[in-house]
Specification:
The chain is mainly alpha-helical and 194 residues long. It folds into 2 domains: 1-39; 43-192, no CATH class. The protein has 7 helices and 4 strands. It has helices at 2-27, 32-35, 53-68, 98-104, 109-119, 131-139, 150-192; strands at 71-72, 81-82, 84-87, 94-97. The strands form 2 sheets. It has a two-stranded antiparallel ribbon. Strands 3-4 form a two-stranded antiparallel ribbon. Helix 3 (53-68) packs across helix 7 and helix 5 (109-119) runs antiparallel to helix 7 (150-192). The N and C termini lie far apart (86 Å). The structure holds zinc ion. Residues 88, 90-91, 93, 96, 100, 105, 107 line the site of zinc ion.
């Protein structure tokens, strides 16, 4: 019975899962299928990583961006899971999406250079960012940072997570300052009517 389940039932269920995974990942506008073409069990090894809360938070951020291609501002109490921010809080570019934040925002260039030096070739200056290849470097391959090279796996998590964290902090600051401006103008308006 055990052998029948292993040799006949499980392969059928696995191929059913694979087909469903491929169908849904190919439909999406974010090319998840290019990063990972079959489902992967969550690696048990990840439970043994000696990370603090901050790094786990960045890993969570990286994982959500990898799956959805969106900006998980909610992880840093700066809003919701969004496709774009109307105005980039770091450089004022309009319609800032994940491509802008990781690939062209001047407000994250230092993080990109840091990632390049720790992960790619520290003897060369970081090249200008090219989205198709950068996206594959940041998201392709396994769910686990323990891919082929743990340092490289961790470096890309830190880059993506740190960019989203920085944007979120700037969103929080701009929301706070606009709230304060609104309060000041409301106070001015009410005192002028006295
Ligand atoms: Zn920007």
């Amino acid at each position: 019975m055990k052998n029948y389940r292993k040799n006949h039932v499980q392969p059928v269920l696995q191929s059913y899962d694979n087909a469903a995974f491929i169908a849904s990942s190919q439909k999406a506008t974010w090319p998840y299928h290019d990063f990972q073409w079959i489902p992967e069990a969550f690696p048990e090894s990840i439970h043994h990583l000696d990370w603090g809360y901050g790094t786990w938070q960045l890993y969570r951020t990286w994982a959500i961006v990898k799956v959805m291609g969106k900006l998980p501002l909610h992880l840093f109490s700066a809003g919701e899971l969004v496709d774009t921010i109307e105005l980039c809080p770091l450089c004022s570019s309009p319609h800032a999406n994940i491509q802008h934040i990781l690939n062209s925002c001047m407000g994250t260039l230092d993080l990109y250079r840091k990632w390049w030096q720790s992960s790619c070739d520290s003897s060369l200056p970081a090249p200008s960012r090219e989205w198709e290849s950068l996206r594959m470097q940041l998201f392709a391959d396994r769910v686990s940072p323990m891919c082929d090279d743990q340092d490289k796996g961790e470096a890309r998590i830190l880059y993506v997570g740190s960019c989203v964290r920085r944007v979120s902090a700037a969103v929080r600051r701009s929301t706070l300052s606009s709230d304060i401006s609104t309060l000041i103008s409301q106070a001015a308006a009410s005192s002028s009517t006295l």
